[in-house]
Amino acid sequence: PIPKGYTTLGALAFKDVFKAGTSLYGIGDLTALAGDTHKFESRYLDGLVGAYPEEEKLYKERSPIESVDTLSCPILLLQGVEDKVVPPNQAEMMHEALLKKGIPTCLKMYEGEQHGFRKAENIEDALDSELAFYGNVFGIEDIPGAIELKIDNL
């Protein structure tokens, strides 16, 4: 498995290169994920980060949510409600941290979806949401067929 959502959040949190981003079911808090029973038992993060709790300092250093002070660009968070790989609280915590900092953000939770969207209508909505998000963030007007999207702090 490749942690694409985590990579997106990490790139936005740890580098000042991007103007906006979208995280699909991304890990924002490695420490919280390590404490999740399902992932803790699978030891998935041991190979990515290190043994937990022995390497807790490293988990905090590599958690995008711990570096929210360096974040400065808008972020769209897309998350499946039934995700057991990356629990929905990851997106919810990240969204709350972005709201507190005043960063433009939008959280969309998809009922009946897990890690990776499978329902055609949700895949379509996720893509439409990205188009609307970037259009709003970059001030692009009159995008044909664009959906309405509420972006907090914009």
Explained architecture:
With 154 residues, the chain is mainly alpha-helical. It contains seven helices and three strands. The chain has helices at residues 4-14, 30-35, 37-42, 44-48, 56-61, 89-101, 120-137, and strands spanning 21-24, 75-80, 105-110. The chain has a three-stranded parallel beta sheet with strand order 1-2-3, with helices on both faces. Strand 2, helix 6 (89-101) and strand 3 form a beta-alpha-beta unit. The longest helix has 18 residues, at 120-137. The radius of gyration is 16 Å and the shape is globular. The model has no long low-confidence stretch (mean pLDDT 92).
Q: How many helical stretches?
A: 7
- Helix content percent band: 40-55%
Oligomer: single chain
Could you tell me how far the N terminus lies from the C terminus, measured between alpha carbons in angstroms? 34 Å
